[in-house]
Amino acid sequence: MIDATVLVIDDDDDILLSARLLLKQHFQQVVTCKSPREINVLLSRNEVDIILLDMNYQKGSSDGREGLYWLEHILSIDKDYVVILMTAYGNVELAVQAIKKGATDFILKPWENEKLFATLSAAAKLRHSNKKVNKLEKLHTSLQTDMARRFEHIVGASEPIQKLQGVLLKVAPTDANILILGENGTGKQVFAYEIHKHSQRKNGVFMHVDLGSLTENLFESELFGYAKGAFTDAKEDKPGRFEMAEGGTIFLDEIGNLSLPLQAKLLSVIQNRTVNRLGESRERKINVRLVTATNMPLSEMVTKGTFRQDLLFRINTVELLLPPLSKRGSDILLLASHFLQTFNNKYHRNIQKFDSKAEALLLRYHWPGNVRELQHVIERAVIMTDGLQITEEDLQLNPQKFGGNAAPTVQEEMALGDMEKLMVQRAIEKHKGNISRAASELGLTRAALYRRIEKFDL
Ligand SMILES: Nc1ncnc2c1ncn2[C@@H]1O[C@H](COP(=O)(O)OP(=O)(O)OP(=O)(O)O)[C@@H](O)[C@H]1O
């Protein structure tokens, strides 16, 4: 039984009866009616998928004009209705005209049952895939809107940020590969999305892939996809992220974390602009714009032999170096006000501003965690503040972070929690704020390390 509702419209009772008898054996629901004037009511009452529409209604008419009129009317209600026209007169001209106006197919009366069934079951398939595409388009639009809301826009009026925005606007519309460098939390992802938003691909997908979180095993299946049976759990064919980003932008974050063998695999995809799903020999062409980011010093890594020079040359057609927050002057206050607004909305608060001492502290502090840290500090302050202004105390900034040498020494009776905090602090200092490296030294994932930084208020 085909899961579709067919509406048959014809002024001849015999036709309606034989259509009903035949079609109800195969289709979930069959609705019939004698006059196209009932179309509006019928379409609003039933979830109709296919409409089988006669071309002539008035006695003696055979030019099919009425049919064309009602066809247009139906498609003006919803262009995705699948309409099959029928007529007793074999008129090729009319068929062509009907198809041009959006009919899906045409059938001659008297019909052969097999032919009618074949036409309608093909129509049901078409309707089904139209519905699927519609659903996916809606999902895509809502994801895009959601994404745009999440990233909003780049906040910053300082000279370095203005310059970067100028470069961004120049290179975004080209298809050049862009490498974004900068410490953790400087806004690499925000810039990557901004590039996408100003590119020719802005209506396509923006696919973010955190390479740092992919294990060696998952890398290929996740990025390039796999064929059914390629490995035990491969129950069906699955496209990889490159294919899913078709026509859009793929943002490969933490590219400095890739091992040399994986760098070679990625290079070959970028060079050939094709992917091979695991377990499949076929090469699939890809059309994606590549944006990459890392907080690691890729040039130094090339010198040390831990990053391939040819891969670096492929990805860095244009390089954007995001400055640490402490080098952005009064952007700190702009960003702080921006986050104050965001969290006022989120927590239904109405805090007006920062008092002058709090502002001075925000400007003085050196922000090792950059914009992300500022965001967390303001969120916490919005939650904790009782008054209408955020004070120095509300910011709860750790004075140890002002100097470099204030780290505590290990004491014999140090509590476990303090010990953990000290280890985390030292690892971050040792790697100059490079979270990925500190995390790998501590044997933690980046997310786990971020949780500890939050927990210990570092
Ligand atoms: N210029 C900016 N304007 C507004 N928000 C920003 C800006 N820069 C960063 N943010 C916000 O700060 C947070 C951290 O930014 P983002 O994730 O882009 O940093 P990142 O450099 O990609 O970090 P990581 O290296 O840890 O992945 C995000 O919530 C982002 O929305």
Major β-sheet, in short?
5 strands, parallel
> What's the average pLDDT?
87
Unreliable residue stretches? 403-414
| Bound ligand species | adenosine-5'-triphosphate
Cα-to-Cα separation, first versus last residue: 63 Å
Kindly report the spatial arrangement of strands forming the biggest sheet: 2-1-3-4-5
Cα-based radius of gyration, to the nearest Å? 31 Å
Structural class: alpha/beta
Kindly give the count of domains: 3
**Outline type:** elongated
Topology, number of strands:
16
Strand percentage, roughly?
A: 5-15%
CATH architecture assignment name of the largest domain: 3-Layer(aba) Sandwich
The helix count comes to 19
CATH superfamily of the largest domain: P-loop containing nucleotide triphosphate hydrolases
CATH topology of the largest domain: Rossmann fold
Helix coverage percent of residues?
A: 40-55%
Task: Determine and state the CATH class of the largest domain.
Answer: Alpha Beta
Oligomer: single chain
Protein name: Sigma-54-dependent Fis family transcriptional regulator
Keywords: Activator, ATP-binding, DNA-binding, Nucleotide-binding, Phosphoprotein, Transcription, Transcription regulation
InterPro entries: AAA+_ATPase, AAA_lid_NorR, CheY-like_superfamily, Homeodomain-like_sf, HTH_Fis, P-loop_NTPase, Sig_transdc_resp-reg_receiver, Sigma_54_int
Pfam families: AAA_lid_14 (PF25601), HTH_8 (PF02954), Response_reg (PF00072), Sigma54_activat (PF00158)
